[in-house]
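Help!! Second protein's tokens look totally different from the first
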Amino acid sequence: MQRTELVTYLDSYLRIAEIKDYGPQGLQIEGRAEVRKIVGMVDAQAPCVAAALARGADMLLVHHGIFWGPPQRLVGSFGALVRAYLDADLNLYAAHLALDAHPEVGNNVELARRLGLTVESMFAPVNGMPIGVLASAPDGMTFDALVARYARNVGPAQLVQAYGPAVCHRVGIISGAAAREIPVAAGLGCDVFVTGETSHAEFYAAQNAGVNVIYGGHYVTETVGVQALGAHLSERFGIDFEFVDMPTGL
């Protein structure tokens, strides 16, 4: 498949131009013109490049690209990283908030699907774009059962805080680092909140709000969108896709 055709489709499907992010998204580094294999990963750093090349990738598709904030000089370790892409003629495509917010393959709707929840609406805008999911749980689902389902269908939780009711009704989901949104989710009627990580400053937020929280790991909660997007591309275009798991432990 030609890179230009693939990038045009991804830009449109993910609404790259519509979603303001913290750095340029979409095709961040242009490599070879033909894309036969896509490797999907959460991150795009030096070990990720090596892993993608070892699997014969023509494009590395990631959630966390390499460009954030102000322009960076191509020197030192960052310069070496960029040269590794250019020397290998490897395309790099990144979708950050666009993948969090996507209604079909986004991290948060995909987490809801894997947990057996029904998506009701979106919340928690970032740069004007709601990225979080509000979802309803099946009748009678307990919090313990939801934690077990997370472990089975997503990965082991890093921290579970059981400060809410034993039976789940409404669940707020925001992948990555979103503990700051616990009071917001509680105010919207959530008795469960699912996110990736917390900090000492936010540790007591769940107890203060009287809700259950699953901290599933920043990395783990953001594996699911790349996997879903890759499966979509494979089904639509017949292109070879492989997800490579490279957990950070965070």
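Here's the second one for comparison:
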Amino acid sequence: MIMKRLLIIIIFVGASFLGRSQDAHLSMYDASPLYLNPAMTGVFEGNWRLHAQYRTQWKSVNYKPYNSALLSLDVPKGKWGFGGQISNFRAGFGNYNAAQGMASVAYTTPIDKGKGHNISFGLQAGLAQKSVEYQLLSYDNQYTTSNGGGFDQTISSGEDFQGQSIIVPVTNAGVMYFFSKQQAFLNPFVGVSAFNLIEPRETFLGNDNDLPMRFFGHIGTRINITETFYVLPKVLFMYQREFQEQTYAVDVGYFLKGAELYLIGGLIYREADAGIITVGAKMDHFVAKIGYDFNVSTLSTVSSGRGGLELSFTYIHIKNKPKTAKICPRL
């Protein structure tokens, strides 16, 4: 039964890789730990973890909606964690596509005698293949006023494309602190991750264009109000050269003892961009969540507030449930 459910998840994400995908926001950013911070590789209680996430957005303003999909698998081995992730994003009329394959490794160690305070270091490396069908694009100098106006793609665009596919290296790193005593009232965590460490040259036109480093900073704490109810406020900061983004969120969870089920939900605000509602459930080895973005940016007058739909599935395999709690963050 378990393998059947896993097969459904894999087929779901695999189908999205054959579809049209785009490099967009992930509103449920910490649902995919390897995407957020390489230091989170293998940092969980269990034998192995499979995660799948899919997002579609801008269907209300574009007949080709932007889609994102990723699939990751990681395993803990003592203080070490090993994993891999594949992702695919596609955007726009020119079918810009970015596919990535990465391997991750992390090392986690306690920094106090009680083994409550922990720090984890992680690295990621792999390749990204990016492509664009520039023949489908239109340019301002191709616009003609005859016959009511329109684009004539037989007119030269003046752009000197030297290919429509490139391969670039991917190198990322991260560090995270977390307090893991599960019986504590507070379980704080803070992490920093950096992407595109070597700033690879990325261009379809043959000119100099280095992909700038991108930084994530994430912080929060799980507050165990009672044995069955928790609140988790958290903040995400993103910075990449001229661009900055701030995301504020709060998750809540309530455990239904009779059903052995956690009901989970959350509110997220991405500054000047979107408000997001998430709902989901955690039962046994499975976590499933769904989120929806309500656009609040200047585009909202066109989109009527409609943004994007996001789905997240996580399966953690536990062969033999440990008698004592393993050191891991309660995110």
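Reply: Different proteins will give different token patterns, so don't panic. Residues 2-317 form a domain with the Porin fold (CATH 2.40.160.40).
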